[in-house]
């Protein structure tokens, strides 16, 4: 059993921390530009369907595995399936989290830099070219590496404090504030002249814009946004007491994720079309559109600064979960200092993240299968490793984990019927793995 000092102090703290792990770059940064590059409304509809039918069941599964074992990811699979090879799922998750955090921290560094620039009023200016500003920031190797380093140092410090005093305390304050500022931004965005075109692009499905690759991206986005596939939520739920309903908690996290993604789209696309910007701009979309929107508001620089700081904190709550799974893997059994392990892990991730941070400057011409290091890492993690991890988890739930333990964990502290458990289990055993395989093969043009 976990020590009580290593547990969440409340149900709300767990839900907000889990939502913080899920929301962040996935919903706020990546979702808008992936939607813009893949046809708008049809992609959003697919994303919602995949989140509810595939992502949510997997999230419940990760919660069940973690609390059922009361261990971090690698040890959890060893505990639930001893003397077997299923611990590869936890190892896969730790490696995936490492790779994800190596490029995720680069974007975190960009937001950190923008936050620092916005405080003295160095972003919003008359006749400013925000696309050029983004290119200047990301094209400066010293600035991007410094941003990467500072972002990781913040992560290390918080993880060193542990679950209750580090991750939970920060999430309880920051997530509600971020939601409030997003609502303010949406209200302003939809009132721009020409905003309706952007709203229709985002909410009106046009399935002719979809390709097999788009469907794979929508599936990967649902996994990325919910932080499932790398057993991050296995580690988080291992700190959870038995008086919390896992299906209800997973449902709350999923709903919050969809709502924030909706708000992100409504904040971004009306501005994109109102100002004649390109919705398929790519990773820089958010950094170009936000200043445009805030520049049209009274006290825009102040609001931009506050929003960027909250956005930075939302990104941090996501990155905490990735560093936590790596740190806990090395401190679970052996009496190692959490602080020391966090610093060592952070240093290695920093070194691994340098090539991605230079993808817009010194290494811009270096390509892997036609992609920069940053884009190649993103593609590997989001569209291969995350679906692969989710497939392994579905197979573990469907064919290996003890069914009695599974049903007991599913049923604690909720009034859901046994029928709901059966539906969830059948989804995990058949629908989830088959969907992942079909979508992946379809994206390769094999079916």
TrEMBL record:
Subcellular location: Membrane
Keywords: Membrane, Symport, Transmembrane, Transmembrane helix, Transport
Chief location category: membrane
Transmembrane parts of this sequence: 12-31, 43-65, 86-113, 142-161, 173-195, 215-234, 255-277, 297-320, 341-359, 379-399, 420-444
Membrane-related topology note: Multi-pass membrane protein
Family annotation (InterPro entries): Na/ntran_symport, SNS_sf, YocR/YhdH-like
NCBIfam families reported in the protein's UniProt record: Na_transp
Similarity-based family: Belongs to the sodium:neurotransmitter symporter (SNF) (TC 2.A.22) family.
Entries under PANTHER family matching the protein: TRANSPORTER
The name this protein goes by in its record: Transporter
